[in-house]
Structure formats: C-alpha cells, structure tokens
Amino acid sequence: MKVVFFSSKSYDEQFFNAANQGRHELDFHETKLSPKSAALAEGAEAICIFVNDNCGRETLQRLANFGVRYIALRCAGFNNVDLAAAQELGIKVVRVPAYSPHAVAEHTIALLLTLNRRIHRSYNRVREGNFALDGLVGFDLNGLTVGIIGTGKIGQIVAQLFQAFGCKILCYDVSQNEELLSRGAEYVDLDTLFSESDIISLHCPLLEATHHLIDENAISKMKRGVTIVNTSRGGLIDTTAVIRALKSGQIGNLAIDVYEEEDSLFFEDQSAKVLQDDTFARLLTFPNVIVTGHQAFFTDTALTQIASVTLGNLSELEESDTCSREVKPA
Ligand code: NAD
C-alpha cells in the first residue's frame, strides 16, 4: 500500500524504514497535514499522521477526493481527527492505542522530580560555578497525596511509581482500575481530589468533557501551592487561568509536556524566531514552571513499537479492510 506521511521527522523515517522491510511504499513529508497540504496524498491509499496534524472535516473531504481510504495515526490520541466526518466519507481511522505507557509515565516522574528538586535551575548554576543553594528548596514526596485524573494505562503506572515514593493515591476516572484498587488507591470525586491532593497529574484524554478540566473554578478548590503535572493533552488546562494562579501562588509548581496551542510551536526548531505566543512566553518566565515539547513518548522502545503497530494496522487494512485498532465516533 502507498502511505504518505505528514509531519515526518528523520527519526520517523529511521524507525519506520527499519520496521517496514519493503512491505509498504512509504513516502515521507515534513509538511503538516492541512486542507492545503492534503494534495500530497494524491494517489495514496493511506496517510500516516501525528498529534498536531489537522484532520478536520475540510481536510478529510479533500483526502477523500484524492482517493485516501485509511488514516493511520502514529500515536494514541485522536482528538485532532473529526471521526464523524471520516466515517461519513468512508475513511477508516486507526491508531496505536498503547506503545510504551512506561515512556510517558517515566517522563511524568522525571518532570516532577526535576521541578520539585529544582534540577533545571541547579544544572545552570553549577555550570557557572554557582554552588549556592538559596532558592533550590524542594519537598519530600514521601507522605504526600497525589491525585491521578485518568487511571488508564499511563495513569496506572504513574500511580504505582508515586506509591513507590510513599505517596497516598487518590484517583478520578469515569471507570475504576481494578489493579489500582487492589493496590490501595482510592477513587474520589473530582472536588475531593482537587481539595486533598498535593500533586495532581493528568492522564485522561482530551474530550469535550475534559476540555479545560483545570480552569479557574477547579484551581480555586485546590490546596494552596499545589503542583500540577500534565503529560496528557494541552487542552485539559486553561493556560490563562493557570498563569493567574502561578502569579498569586495558588499553584506552586507546574510541569507540562503539552500545551493547548502547541501545534504552532512544538516539534520544530523555533530558536531563531521571535516567539509570537505571549501566553506561552509568560509561562516560560516562571522559575517554578518547566516545559518539555511533547517528548514524553520519545524513547527508542516507544518509537519501535509505534512503527511496528502502525505498519501492522496498515497491513490488516490492506488484507481485510478492517483493523482491530480502528477508532470510531463515540
Ligand atoms: P487510556 O485510554 O489507557 O486511559 C485514559 C483513561 O482516561 C481511561 O481510564 C478513561 O476511562 C479515562 N477517562 C476518559 N474520560 C475521562 C473523563 N471524562 N474524566 C476522567 N477520566 C477519563 O490512555 P493512556 O494510554 O493512559 O493515555 C492517556 C493520555 O495520555 C492520552 O489520552 C493521550 O492524550 C496522552 N498521551 C500523551 C503522550 C505524550 O507524549 N505526552 C503520549 C501518549 C499519550
């Protein structure tokens, strides 16, 4: 099958070529998918896209006109695809539901520890010969209460890792995780999670119901000085409300791997450009905020798995026009 890749990077080519072994005809493009760039897919049966490709109705209509029948997401989230429009147009959408939940969970802990122990600041100080400790006071994780929102594959591992530090785990999800219950985690309503957690870590998908889950109202219910970690999707957080709370001290620390307007920023070298997003620029000024550019998934284990499952999805579609990892509208 001919597959056109959008938003492709050198590492995508490397891992997909290694896993493909001549099975499919892979055509890599760095261009992001949009209604305009959809024309690159002309003559291909399938396209392969990533988290920030625009796969709204207009793009899908154009893809259908060019004869595209399959969209393979090389990621787990699918909030950037209009699934209802895809179904109407007869385009099937498949994804990689799990590649390495450990990669994302471990990055969550890495962010939290970096932020809490001020490693990002001490790293720079030490390189300049400054060994003063002022301003680097952290806090012990042992004994703290951690609220996990979304206790699926990633949330479960994050909860278990926090348990290893001696933290109490409070969970919120629309369905309960039996494994976590058996390990002593407790399910509570959102308000209780907000009011009792010292650290809140987000691991639910971005849906209409979860958009701006962390807004001014939610933040007002939290403990003063709360730490928030988001490695899920940027839209879960109302960034403007979070900035106000960081300025007032209501939020004590923020670690994010995702940002609600990240599609115009992330995955590209922007270092020679003037940053146009004033909200994001303000976030970067806080000493108690750390940001990574959607890299939580980025391990060799995960990339190998993503390539292998995506190509397997395409092979299933080629053979039977069905795939066990298809996503359909709710
Ligand atoms: P998962 O499907 O295994 O778990 C998601 C959990 O969220 C499920 O238990 C589900 O019941 C729960 N949920 C659904 N609606 C909810 C709601 N309204 N409120 C609370 N919980 C709700 O998914 P996962 O593999 O654990 O991934 C979680 C999220 O992590 C994904 O949605 C994706 O957005 C994000 N992610 C980020 C990266 C990264 O690199 N930063 C990589 C992979 C996944």
Blueprint (SSEs and pairs):
Layout: E1 2-5, H1 10-20, E2 25-28, E3 46-49, H2 57-65, E4 70-73, H3 83-88, E5 92-94, H4 101-116, H5 119-127, E6 145-149, H6 153-164, E7 168-172, H7 178-182, E8 186-187, H8 190-196, E9 199-202, H9 216-220, E10 226-230, H10 239-248, E11 251-256, H11 278-283, E12 289-291, H12 300-320
Parallel strand pairs: 1-2, 1-3, 3-4, 4-5, 6-7, 6-9, 7-8, 9-10, 10-11, 11-12
Helix pairs in contact: 1-12, 4-6
The structure holds nicotinamide-adenine-dinucleotide.
Nicotinamide-adenine-dinucleotide binds at residues 76-77, 98, 101, 104, 149-155, 172-175, 203-207, 209-210, 231-233, 257-258, 294, 296-297.
GO biological process, one term: L-serine biosynthetic process
Pfam family, one: 2-Hacid_dh
GO molecular function: (S)-2-hydroxyglutarate dehydrogenase activity; D-lactate dehydrogenase (NAD+) activity; NAD binding; phosphoglycerate dehydrogenase activity
Average pLDDT confidence is: 97
Model regions low in confidence, pLDDT < 50 over at least 5 residues: none
Q: What is the helix tally?
A: 12
The CATH class name of the largest domain reads Alpha Beta
Radius of gyration, taken over Cα atoms and rounded to an integer in Å: 21 Å
Strand tally is 12
| Small molecules bound | nicotinamide-adenine-dinucleotide
Q: What strand line-up does the widest sheet have?
A: 8-7-6-9-10-11-12
Pfam families: 2-Hacid_dh, 2-Hacid_dh_C
GO molecular function: (S)-2-hydroxyglutarate dehydrogenase activity; D-lactate dehydrogenase (NAD+) activity; NAD binding; phosphoglycerate dehydrogenase activity
Keywords: NAD, Oxidoreductase
Protein name: 2-hydroxyacid dehydrogenase
